[in-house]
Design brief:
The chain is mainly beta and 329 residues long. The protein has a single domain, classed as Alpha-Beta Horseshoe (Leucine-rich repeat, LRR (right-handed beta-alpha superhelix)). It has 2 helices and 26 strands. The strands form 6 sheets. An 8-stranded parallel beta sheet has the order 10-12-14-16-18-20-22-24, with no helix packed on it. Strands 1-2-4-6-8 form a 5-stranded mixed beta sheet, with no helix packed on it. A 5-stranded parallel beta sheet has the order 19-21-23-25-26, covered by helices on one side. Helix 2 links the parallel strand 25 and strand 26. The longest helix has 23 residues. It is elongated, with a radius of gyration of 26 Å. The N terminus is likely disordered.
Length: 329
């Protein structure tokens, strides 16, 4: 009997100790850095005020369903929550400055994210890749979206502020439910295949003023956007590298702003008929390769009043397109 009593005593003591520890903190935190979780079965997580940073992989493949990040948190590091397939709700604090690469990748239950109150300037590569996201509210402070950051998500609409400078390679590739994008008129880079294969994209609009006309739109940025019917480049456009709209079979109208200096190979070709390509600049941009649709696939190339001869002179080697050039009245 005595042995049994001793056994009881030890079993009673142990849960008591654990429970005390859990009340104190279920997390491993050192100098404000949260490196892990003591109880991997936790599903509802509210972080304590002392957390400044969540370390790489701290909650990777976790069972968390709901997450409240504390005010004071500044950094979410690489793969911090990646593969947490039940994570459906995250509250982001105003103090947040950085979301690292792959931080929420494969969080398939995550359908909505409000980042609008955060201090984020950049969302790193693959941060929300292959998540269930349908809605994201972006902060006004945001300047850069990393490569493949939202690849394969289910976003329906994307609205950025005038502060946005850069969208990296394939950031929104294959977001098939995406219908509308609002970008900055002062954007400086739209990366390789940034919006390619967004099959339901019908509207690209712009906000804000152009301050620096150095924007490069890289290879295939909008290729296979099969629902686009009209497209205007941002006011800040300097160069279109090429293959921008290949496969955009419904695209009938393309507008290039005054600032454009270079138009690359296949840049304005869709492999279907384009009705009007409008150049707003007083000076004709430099052309390389075969930027235009096949002759039978373009109805007219519009240039500013009084500028058709100057355009034809600059485009001497594209003489077969001269008959398509018309002046805006």
């Amino acid at each position: 009997h005595q042995d049994g009593a001793e056994g009881d005593e030890t079993t009673e003591e142990k849960p008591g100790e654990d429970a005390g520890e859990n009340v104190e903190s279920p997390f491993v935190i050192e100098n404000g850095i949260l490196t892990g979780i003591k109880d991997p079965s936790l599903t509802q997580v509210v972080l304590p005020a002392e957390v400044k940073s969540i370390a790489s992989g701290a909650f990777r493949d976790s069972h968390i369903e709901s997450l409240v990040l504390n005010e004071g948190l500044e950094v979410i590091e690489l793969q911090a929550f990646s593969g947490s397939q039940k994570l459906a709700s995250v509250a982001f604090p105003a103090s947040l400055k950085e979301i690292g690469g792959h931080a929420f990748e494969d969080c398939v239950a995550l359908t909505e994210v409000d980042l609008s109150k955060t201090a984020l300037q950049e969302i790193s590569s693959d941060a929300f890749r292959e998540t269930g996201l349908k809605k994201v509210a972006f902060p006004a402070s945001l300047k850069k979206i990393g490569s493949q950051a939202f690849l394969g998500t289910h976003l329906e609409e994307v609205v950025f502020s005038a502060e946005l400078q850069e969208i990296d390679d394939e950031a929104f590739r294959g977001v098939v439910e995406l219908t509308s994008v609002t970008l900055s008129n002062n954007i400086q880079r739209i990366g390789y295949q940034a919006f390619s294969d967004c099959e339901q994209l019908t509207k690209v609009a712009y906000v804000g003023e152009m301050k620096t006309a150095d924007c490069t739109v890289e290879i295939g940025a909008f290729q296979n956007c099969t629902s686009l019917t009209s497209f205007a480049f941002p006011r800040s456009l300097s160069e279109v590298q090429g293959w921008t709209f290949v496969g955009c079979r419904k695209l009938k109208e393309i507008i290039l702003p005054k600032s454009v200096k270079k138009v690359g190979d296949q840049a304005l070709r869709t492999n279907s008929t384009v009705e009007t390509i409008t150049f707003e600049g007083e000076e004709a941009p430099e052309l390389t390769g075969n930027p235009f649709p096949f002759k039978e696939n373009i109805l007219k190339i519009m240039v500013p009043a009084g500028k058709s001869e100057a355009y034809k002179a600059k485009w001497g080697s594209y003489e077969s397109y001269h008959s398509k050039i018309e002046e805006k009245s």
